[in-house]
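Input record (one chain):
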Amino acid sequence: MKHALILTQDMATASTQPSTRKNLIVRLAQQVGDLNLPFLFLATAMAVMLLWAGSYKMTNPGAEGIVPLVTNSPLISWHFKFFGPYIGSDLIGLTEITAAVLILIGLFKPKAGIVGGFIGVVMFFVTSTMVITTPDAITHVNGMGYLSFMGLFLFKDLIALGASLYLISYFGKKAINEENKGK
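The corresponding structure, as predicted from the sequence alone:
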């Protein structure tokens, strides 16, 4: 409530003073940071995405949908050869759900979040490489190579890889701060 009051007061004076408008933007940015919105949004969105994707992989369409991705990947194709597409997809889904739960637990127990972030790094590294190994991930138009819909779908995992690294960093700092408070 305090932040809303400050923001309301700032907005009232901002319309009359040009330099205050700049200060309002800076203070708004500061409040976003003070409320920790980037981390909270990222951690929650990552967990929701992983829960949703993980549970979908435990369905027949979800398992069948990843067959062309996994079978063409030298990093994980062994997985389906060993387990088959349905059990293999279930295990991938379970891994995603585990990462999501650990990230959510990390909001209260940061060491769990670190583990969830590491699982995310491994998963998203592997899926990011599938841009190169999946047929038709790149399409050619007038001699120029573009990412196809499938290529773009896979390429977004580079962003998720970066987000996982950020989560490891944030949870790590939080864990260190908690350990230092305990000393």
